[in-house]
Every structure is written in C-alpha cells, then in structure tokens.
Amino acid sequence: MSQALVRIAAVWLLGLMLAVAGAVVAINLVNNSIASPQQPVREYLDALQKGEGEKALGLLKASVPQSNPAMLDGEALKTAAAGISDVKFGNAEDRGGNQVMVPIDYTLGGSRLHTEFLLQRSGTQWLFFHDWSFVPAALPVLDVTVVNSNQASLNGVPVNMPNGRNTFAVFYPGEYEASLNGKFFAAPATRATVSSRDMPSAPLNLLTQATEGLKDAVTAKVKEFLDTCAAQADKQQRLQPDCPFYHATNNRVVDGTIDWSIADYPAVSIEPFGGRWVVAPLDGKARIKARQVDLFTGAVTELNTVHDFSFTTRLDIAGDSVKLTPQLSN
C-alpha cells in the first residue's frame, strides 16, 4: 500500500513539475511575443500604414507641438508609411528604470534605415504578463516653404502655406513629399524621410516656376498688344505711335504708305521677385515700310527698316485670369 501511494505521489509530483515548467515556458513565450516590448511597436507601425492617426497617437503617447496636423491621419498618413517594408525587430535593450529601447531596421524611400523606440514597463496582467508603453515625447515637425504661393500639396493633400511657409507635425518613420502643381505655377516634388523623433529633417523647399501654360498666356497677350499697337499705328499713319517702337527721320514720309509689323516677337521669361511674379524686359524687333521723300533732293525711296525695341509690363494673376499692363516710357 505504501509503495503504491509513493508511486502515485511521484506521478502527481512529476505532473505538477511539468505543469509548472509548462506554465513558465508559456509565460516566457507570451512575454516574448504579444506581451513583449516589441508588440506596441508592431501595433504602432500597423496603425501608421492603415492611416489610423488617432490610434497611432494614443499608442505613442506623444504630444502634438503647435503646428499643422494635416499629416497625422487618413491618406496623408497612409502615404507617409506606405513604403515601410522588410521590418526587422532587434532585441530590447535595457535602459534602466524599467525602460527598454526597441530597435527596428527597415527599408523606406529606397534606403535601409534604423529607428529606436523607448518604452517603459507600465504594469502586469494576470500577475505574470508585462504591459509595455511608449515613453511620452513630442512628435517631430517638418518645415515646408514655397516660393510665391499660399498653397502646396503634401503627400497628395492640399495644404495652406501662409506667406509661403508652414510647419507640420509628423509621425515617424515616414516619407513626406511636397509639390505644387497649379495651372500657372508649379514646383518639382521634393521629399524628406523622417526616421526619428529627435533628429530634425531638412526642410522641404519648393522652388516655384511659371508653367508653360502661363508663359503661353502671357506670350499671347504680348503678341496681341504688339499687333494691336502696330495696327493702330498704321491706321493713324504715325512714325512715333504710342508703342514700344518708333521711327525717326529727316525725310518726309508719304502719308498713307506707313506699314508697321512685328519682325520678332519678344521671348517671355517670368521670374519671382520681391514676393511677386515679374515678366523680364521684353525685347523684340519691329519693321516699318513706307515711301519717303528726301527734302533736299526730292528723291523718292522705299523705306524698309527694322528697329529694336524693349519694354516692361506688369503681370497680375487672379485665379484663372491673367492681366498684362505694358509700362511704356514717355
């Protein structure tokens, strides 16, 4: 009887030891997986790629600095995180005071990058399972400037740019692209990758240029002005019309024979200057044809002369409207 009891007790003891060992293994497995410090980072990255800004901000426990929040949710956020791939989690490194650093390596924007997240133990569940949370910190910001525009696009989202500049709070890691694609003004896209909350990224500077559409519109108005001016000079039979061009002579020009035309139209160049868009001086050539009489000899000859001319103009743009005001010297 006693030997049978001993064997039963031994079996129970062995079972208990195996159960305890299994529990320890299970606890360690849980603490190294869903209860590991890497898990909040996984959830945070997942929220970024889904564009769930509110969830990402709650997980990160980050404060939002005074800035534009346009990049913190929806399509703008999804776009920022869409390129994050091939993520490798490193082992958590102890930082003292119940804090650990979780490193990740990943690919973004064609480069292999490294980001570190600081987490702290915030409690336990069911006595054994650790709770981890991010150490609170402020989100990084991204500065954007644009030449002579109050609008731009950041990650495909239209954003206001008061006085040509703005500051945007951003999540990390993320890739941000600024651009300007307007009817009359555009700027090549420029990109920045934000991989850390502590390392400031270079500002995105949009170098705005006049589009071919605006140049074509201004060229058409310049041509219209010069053609109208030449036609008016013909109608009035004037050698010195209210135009950028004129002809001076000591001969008498036969009335009714004056014929002005534009030999070379000016090439239009539009540049930013002093917060405005200005048209560079317009240089062209005008041809005058007429019959003239030499006052000394009475000889009649055909006049066919080309004159260089130059003038400036004021450019005003309101919405889709382009206004050109020639500035002619007296």
Average predicted confidence as pLDDT: 89
One letter per element, helices H and strands E, the order comes to HHHHEEEEEEEEEEEEEHEEEEEEE
Oligomer class: single chain
**Sheet with the most strands?**
5 strands, antiparallel
What overall geometry do the principal axes of the alpha carbons give? Answer: rod-shaped
Number of helical stretches of at least 4 residues: 5
- Count of distinct structural domains: 3
Give the C-alpha Rg. 38 Å
Rounded to the nearest angstrom, the distance between the terminal CA atoms is: 131 Å
Flag low-confidence runs. 18-33
Count of β-strands = 20
What is the strand content? 35-45%
- Quickly give the structural class: alpha+beta
Helical residues, percent: 25-40%
Textual characterization of the structure:
The chain has about 325 residues and is an alpha+beta fold. It has three domains: about 25-135, Nuclear Transport Factor 2, Chain: A (Roll), CATH 3.10.450; about 140-210, Carboxypeptidase-like, regulatory domain (Immunoglobulin-like, Sandwich), CATH 2.60.40.1120; about 210-325, no CATH class. Helices cover about 25% and strands about 40% of the residues. The chain has five helices and 20 strands. The chain has helices spanning about 1-30, 40-50, 55-60, 75-80, 210-235, and strands at about 85-90, 95, 100-110, 110-125, 130-135, 140-145, 150-155, 155-160, 165-170, 175-180, 185-195, 205, 210, 250-255, 260-265, 270-275, 275-280, 280-295, 300-320, 320-325. The strands form five sheets. Strands 1, 2, 3, 4 and 5 form a five-stranded antiparallel β-sheet that branches. The chain has a five-stranded antiparallel β-sheet with strand order 8-7-10-11-13. Strands 14, 15, 18, 19 and 20 form a five-stranded antiparallel β-sheet that branches. Strand 7 (about 150-155) and strand 8 (about 155-160) form a beta hairpin. The chain starts with a helix and ends with a strand. Residues about 20-35 have low confidence and may be disordered.
